[in-house]
Amino acid sequence: MDQIAVHQDSATSTDWPVAIYRTLKNFGVAQVSYVPDAGHSKLIKLSHADADIKTTVLTTEEEGVALSAGAWLGGDRAVLLMQSSGVGNCINMLSLMASCRFPLLTLVTMRGEWAEFNPWQIPMGRATPQAFEIMGTTVLRLDHPDDAEEVISAAASLAFDGDQQVAVLISQRMIGRKKWTKETH
Amino acid sequence: MSASTGTLDRRAAVNALLADRGDLLVISGLGSSSYDVFDAGEHPGNFYLWGAMGGAAMVGLGLALAQPKRPVLVVTGDGEQLMGIGSLLTIATKQPGNLSIAVLDNGHFGETGMQLSHSGLGAKLEVIASGAGIGHVSDIADMAGIDRFRKSLRDLAGGPRLARIRIAAGEVERALPPRDGTYLKNRFRGHLGFQVR
Prior knowledge:
The complex is a heterodimer of chains A (185) and B (197).
Chain A: H1 3-12, H2 16-26, E1 29-34, H3 41-49, E2 54-57, H4 61-73, E3 77-83, H5 94-100, E4 104-109, H6 122-133, E5 138-142, H7 148-161, E6 165-170, H8 172-175
Parallel strand pairs in A: 1-2, 1-3, 3-4, 4-6, 5-6
Helix pairs in contact in A: 2-3, 2-7
Chain B: H1 10-17, E1 25-28, H2 32-39, E2 46-48, H3 56-66, E3 72-77, H4 78-83, H5 86-94, E4 99-105, E5 108-109, E6 115-116, H6 125-132, E7 136-140, H7 143-152, E8 161-166, H8 181-191
Parallel strand pairs in B: 1-2, 1-3, 3-4, 4-8, 7-8
Antiparallel strand pairs in B: 5-6
């Protein structure tokens, strides 16, 4: 890896997960569910460490869609964290949110777009925006760390005040290149 | 392969389960389970699913976590629970004491032509639930068992629990609850005191 790429990686490892966490707290989010992703690991840690947020690990992403519906029925605001590979798993469960006009806020770390190493990640990554859109979910992009608060805030208002289903796609460029081996290449 | 050996009448079983329901909140899985819950008595604390197969238990979990002081009961069928079988593992990680799941098990996919389900072909849902980490599981084949399970729902520290309820296979006349999801959602939240905006 050359020096420019290394610099790129360090520039993207800012505190945007903390900005997301603070914004979710400002919106009164009380439940977080997730299928793990390296890009979400800091936010997941912050969530687990927060006694006021009920944090739930899922076996598959559509569980988190249904969980978000139940949380709303009970008066809680929920957020679902996943990576783009899991978006297809949610398709039918998104009909629950559309049929009942349940708020859904999901934050999706992208794979298969920026400097992707694994070709198996690419088809679902490429289809991610369309997969949401065909089910009526609004798609917003978060491409720059400095925009985290503004974008998450806009998405949360749209979801929780506007009763919409909203996905924020977090650019793979923000997460940085995945290190597969110790040696540089 | 033999089919389910259940004999309980599903309507009688659900009626008994929801008798004197008090502050019980109920989520029903799509198909016959929603019809059964509706037939037992319309109630604003009922949320009937008409789709989202595999999601009933997870809707129940989200609700149970949000409302820890209210007992939450998910009433669903074997086919619906099988589609969301991983949710039993997810529920076990949270150990919500106020959440109970009643699986009306006739060993068949009743809504679609009575094909044998995995349960009818030998899978034991109560054993799977136990292996997932749900501490209180039961296999109920008579009305006395229904009554014991109903009474246990009041214990908010005793869950999560899952009961496999062996019901007879066979068609029952449909009893159709409201199917406007937004109405059902707002009615439910209104019942809990949340203002509909």
